[in-house]
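Case study: Potassium channel domain-containing protein.
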Amino acid sequence: MARRRRRLASRVRGYVRGFLAFLFSNVGVVVLVIAYTIGGAFMFQAIEGASEMERVSNMTRERDNTAQYLWQNVTLTLNLFNETALKERISIELLNYQRKIVFAVRRGWDGGISSRQWSFSSAFLYSMTVITTIGYGHLSPRTSWGKIVTIFYALLGMPLFLLYLSNVGDLLANWFKCIYALVCMCRGCPGFTRRRVVHFRSQLELSDVESIERPAGWRQEYSGSEITPEPIPYVPQHRPDPRRDYFRSISLPQPSRNPRPDPIRGWSEPLPRPGSVSSDFAYVTFDVQTITVPISACVAFMVGYLIFGSMLFGMWEKWDKLDGAYFCFISLSSIGFGDFVPGERVYTPRIETSFIVCSLYLMLGMALVAMCFNLMQEQVLHYYACLKRVIKRIYRCKR
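Here is what the predicted structure looks like once written out:
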């Protein structure tokens, strides 16, 4: 019985560890952010939706009561030919109705007669703007519970979204660098031959230096990406020059003809054989961590995403291209003025879909912005390292 309990406990711990590892992986963080936003949408819809329905019901009843009172107590009791008395009585009733409208608007009524403000899609967009710190301001909680829940929801959601930006931004940056290397570092691109020759020459020089610095009696066997030194017996030969004996006792590494993929560096490439450097150009090798994407490519990618968003929202919301681009930039930069919000100006049957599309656009767009910032930061550091090497060389030449 005790063994079964221990086995069950160990299984439960294993499942919990696996579940937590999945949650904090790249896919798990994305799923967690989406689930957290959906849960927040249902929660805010339940809290604020009931209050909104009550406000709409009260204002509809006040409107009907005012119209009924004007018909029964004003039109039927006063003399219709007495224009002055009729206007005074109607003005008093309309002024009271206006005061009720102002009071209701201050408490969150949007002037509509249907409870569509806190629908699921609008609540989903509200949850997304809370954790992304955009905060359009077009929708805000009016109840005490709604305000309290918003505070704790933001306290937990903002660090979660920052974790999402960090993980997904790094993942997208690696993918973008791989695509950039495959597209822009191909064989047909200008300068490919020069880059390959420099690369192979540096590899040969490095292998020669390593073979010279290695002590006698050691030999490398090169296979794929692993290098395993194996000791061999050293048999000295009687030569007039001892250094010649030293160099003859060392065997240079021989490249493998069948390169194997490396899980870290992408593709592995055999070292070029002597006299056949041009024949090895078919192998394109690169390390993802050493690739730097130009800043111009990152800026062009972000501009393209803004243009795509401007066209999308211009088609859905009947905005012009400038307003759409302005809305996308204000949203992705987390400024969020709130002067342009999807679904505010026109009401169409597709407004629910528009809210969902806007939320997904923001979620993906902010991850892409984080990706571009990571790539531009790497490029700036690369420029700094190059400038540092140039300054060192200039300083050495002067000495």
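For the exam, be able to explain this: Residues 191-285 form one domain.
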